[in-house]
């Protein structure tokens, strides 16, 4: 229902931290609120509700939230002095993990809600209005996906995210996700396919399937069958208009033969995979409770490359997990050298309250963590630069998604997820949504620059 007559306009500003799942969740929070008459505001100063969608995965997450809340408190007080209202909601994984603590430290917050209850936000806002601050960090029996309205607030665009799975049952020693996101659940295939069709109608050409453990997806499928992710990808690849598919984040344990074969068989499945390994040391992997060894990871990489020789690999690494010795760290460097990554994320281990590793006696000193992270990042950066440089002179397809930073340039993504910049003589926006062949001219550490293929003759004449 939209707000009528003289009622104050409902304007919400959503701040998002963390992973792509949080970006997706923020869009769905916006959808829920749009269905309740709220419009999006670009800035907190222009809103009467601010939602902080938070991330708890690594260090200082909660501190960042409290410092942002301090700023919003001043804004709220200034508003109140003018007789106007600003309501504040804290959502996401920090809210789930520290619900009571948030209201104790920031009693001016109106609503605290976890990742599984944001479909209840309009009701919670109404309750807070009547009764004062409310917390809802349940893991409800109903799934939020059944209560979310069809996407409204989302702007659409050629690149879209679609959550198909949530939660994690793996309980790695260092990780808060099983506690903040709850047990693994998969959305039924029919719901995923219907949402994919909606996204395509709104202009999506590339869809990234999201899940904390996306390749653990198992779903009810048409005809009473039970599908794995490989079968879901095959069905999605068959939807007219779906040109590109990706999925993230995967666990090595769930990288089954069918999924590897999908990389061979489905041209729409992009040759890029984010497959976190965390460490190259079997002793550390065991301590982490990862359920795979270094050799298992290398075997999966070998099979993936046999299926799709140009597949580019990405990973997550943690250095300085409790008990990690210098020799363990060397094993991580050896694994990185053996694989050759196109890109990767690496972090110093940070104890997360409530996780088993946080209580371990053999914590690694900060200075060792720092030195190991620097050495690992230097190696990963070298590999990323080498990977990007190997693209120079090659032709590849790019899906253009927007204007580049420089005037007259458009930017898109290569099949390997690198940002690619081209000069766009007809204006960058004319290219948005198109998949075009380009030739790579040069490589930077984090992006490529290219020329559109049709400009080839002119380019050739000038030389
Ligand atoms: N400390 C450091 N890094 C962590 N990650 C998850 N938990 C921690 C932690 N306690 C990293 C892992 C994971 C990524 C999303 O964040 O590498 O794959
Ligand atoms: Fe966390 Fe991933 Fe391990 Fe699950 S599999 S506990 S999400 S690191």
Quick tags:
463 residues, alpha/beta, Rossmann fold, pyruvate-formate lyase- activating enzyme, OB fold (Dihydrolipoamide Acetyltransferase, E2P), 13 helices, 21 strands, globular, disordered C terminus, binds 5'-deoxyadenosine, binds iron/sulfur cluster
How would you sum up this structure, described in words?
With 463 residues, the chain is an alpha/beta fold. It has 3 domains: 11-136, Methylthiotransferase, N-terminal domain (Rossmann fold, 3-Layer(aba) Sandwich), CATH 3.40.50; 144-387, Alpha-Beta Horseshoe (pyruvate-formate lyase- activating enzyme), CATH 3.80.30.20; 395-452, OB fold (Dihydrolipoamide Acetyltransferase, E2P) (Beta Barrel). The chain is built from 13 helices and 21 strands. It has helices at residues 20-34, 61-81, 92-105, 121-131, 177-180, 189-201, 229-237, 257-265, 282-288, 294-307, 326-339, 366-389, 456-462; strands at 11-16, 39-40, 49-54, 87-91, 111-113, 134-136, 159-163, 165-166, 185-186, 206-210, 218-221, 225-228, 244-248, 272-274, 312-319, 343-348, 395-403, 409-413, 419-423, 435-443, 448-452. It has a 6-stranded parallel beta sheet with strand order 2-1-3-4-5-6, sandwiched between helices. The chain has a 5-stranded mixed beta barrel with strand order 17-18-19-21-20. The protein has a 3-stranded parallel beta sheet with strand order 7-10-13. Helix 11 (326-339) links the parallel strand 15 and strand 16. Helix 7 (229-237) runs parallel beside helix 8 (257-265). The longest helix has 24 residues, at 366-389. The chain is globular, with a radius of gyration of 23 Å. The chain starts with 10 loop residues before the first strand and ends with a helix. Mean pLDDT is 92; it is low at 1-6 and 455-463. Iron/sulfur cluster (SF4) binds at residues 168, 170-172, 175, 177-178, 212-213, 251.
